[in-house]
Amino acid sequence: MEKLQLGPGILQKENPKLIYARLSGFGQSGRFSRVAGHDINFLALSGVLSKLGRSGENPYAPLNLLADFGGGGLLCALGIVMALFERTRSGKGQVVDASMVEGAAYLSSFLWKTSKVGLWAQPRGENMLDGGAPFYGTYRTADGGFMAVGALEPQFYKLLIKGLGLKSEELPDQMSMTDWPEMKKKFADIFAKKTKAEWCQIFDGTDACVTPVLTFDEVSHHDHNKERGSFITDAEQGVSPRPAPLLSNTPAIPSFGRDPFVGEHTEEILKEFGFSQEEINQLHSDKVIESNKLRANL
After folding, report:
1. Comparison of pLDDT for 237 and 107, the residue scoring more
2. 159-169 pLDDT, tens per residue?
3. Would you please indicate which residues are annotated as catalytic (active-site) residues?
4. Phi then psi dihedrals of residue 59, to 5 deg
5. For 178, which DSSP code?
6. Within a 10 A sphere around the Cβ of 68, how many other Cβ atoms?
């Protein structure tokens, strides 16, 4: 935007109410602010990546969701909402500096705030919530599917044990960490003896906190998701999540049309703002804008 002479300093002189959001990997200042990076780099610099991964293995990033979309896009949007709310009081806009490093770190505040209570005292992958506990992880089923287990509380763990066909009095205490590796093997052996559908039949409707790991092909067909309409199918039969969260008075109305091509509506939007065709052509030749009109394949 600065290259187009449209930085916040210039635009806010024209419109002091303008909210100008800057979303970047490393933020607008600091020695890394002008260097390239991707989600995994931002996650690494935030400290969060060091906590992700199995015991004895390299840290691994959960796709590019945490820094790009969670710490980046989501917190940038939240920053815009906060600036909009503040503007109702002051009448002034402001610049939002959304750093994906800082956003990912802020999302992980729980890790920092619980670091002194022993929740993360063990090495990566050996704690209760990162794969170390037998009652919080995933297990392969007989048909190659997976079940997710999150039976943290004692009352839920009791139901897990019951569903697995085990007897609590014959097992070590749930929180005996020295027994966790052996219990994980025991649970894995049991889960491997039934299909995902069979385990769903056993655990569905219970509070054992055991659910199927649904694939993208399965997720829109699951009864719970169908009942809520959690996923939508567009005109080209593509499945995607419905907008969330749901608002009682102003719920989003999803579009069932295809996604637009990059630049498909550039010209009509510029014309709505009063640009002439000559000005639009000049923007094209200067490579400021891109146009991608839908054409018939005849």
Report:
1. 107
2. 999 999 999 99
3. 38, 68
4. -60, 150
5. G
6. 21
